[in-house]
Amino acid sequence: MTKQRRYFGTDGIRGRVGDGVVTPDFVLKLGWAVGRVLANGKNSRVIIGKDTRISGYMFESALQAGLSAAGVDIYLLGPMPTPAVAYLTRTFHAQAGIVISASHNPYHDNGIKFFSAQGTKLPDEIELEIEAMLEQPLQTVESIRLGKAHRIGDAAGRYIEFCKSTIPSGVDLSKLKIVVDCANGATYHVAPDVFRELGAEVVVMGAEPDGLNINQNCGSTEPRLLQQAVLKNKADLGIALDGDGDRIIMVDHRGEIVDGDELLFIIARARQRSGDKHTDVVGTQMTNLGLEHALAEYDMSLHRAKVGDRYVMEMLQQVGGQIGGEASGHIICLDKTTTGDGIVAALQVLAEIQQTGNSLHSLRSVVTKYPQQLINVRVEKMVDIDANPDISDAVAEVEKQLGSDGRVLLRPSGTEPVIRVMVEGRDAPLTKQLAQQLADVIEKVLKA
Fold first, then answer.
1. Residues annotated as part of the active site
2. pTM: predicted TM-score of the whole model, two decimal places
């Protein structure tokens, strides 16, 4: 049985600044523990990047002090997208990469996440080693062995060139007008240049970070203003990134949102059209059934992982797939990079638009998304819903009514005392009715 992690969640450590472990003293000790576990020996180095939230300065200094105390050299990137840190960790042959970010959360949250020397998320056993080291007293190496800090001045340029290299050199975006929303986050000084250097006419928004406005009414979680900007500027499409640049949502020329499920299909189909023989695409339990059916039309299979990009990556490796992601826009192109990357994912879609001559609206229209109804049933304590015969019977009855054109998903939340009831089907009113019917049964059983 896997030992329970005390500090690490599915994507590092995250929370409200000043609460719990998201404090300068803990982060200093965390830096030391990471240095001890991941970077033993001479010439050890760790890369540190951050997003634009105000607390990043504080935590950058704390990590730097802890790593130095462990005898590790630090290479500072400043504000840089999470996937850029993964890439630069590999190219600098560092022992680890650290990102100070709370991704799509508001400014008052922050977090620390890690990449291995290979640019991948840390395996559970390494996180457990770091947690064990955190229980030990902090011991500073002798002064001659203290780590030194360096700043990488050309990090943005290196990453821009990498992003451009992920699509064929002949791709010319000069006929496209694009609105790019950087969420006032880590891509503000990178994303616009990537698209401009490939020829696109770029209208920029969400690129004036002040430490407090990251993800505020902008970015992939709040695309309303982007939709308006696309229509106002008569643009071909819009691109919304999140605060740390690992998620993307797009908007077509009609102002309609194109989510991660639809983008996943477009990228998978582009790979197939170019001759790629990989037919296994990875989504999650929440991936829309419409994507599964659309992929099947082109002889591709959808595999469903648990919710979270960590689990999408694990299943990609298990099935030998190259493309995976979530409706939230966290898309992994394993044939191009090692983690979710919003800019890289956008480029794959833009290349397909340019090479096929089809609009984003046309490409996404192949996927007919099914209505999903999600109801949260609050619980006093978690119970084994799979073992309850009344719930099992109710699920079976709903599945019978849906047939092959729908599905049911029950899952306990990992963050709240609720059971999430999701029903999906072609008929929206029936889907809503069946979801409520199932939620009522579960609520009755839990109260009994």
1. 103
2. 0.92
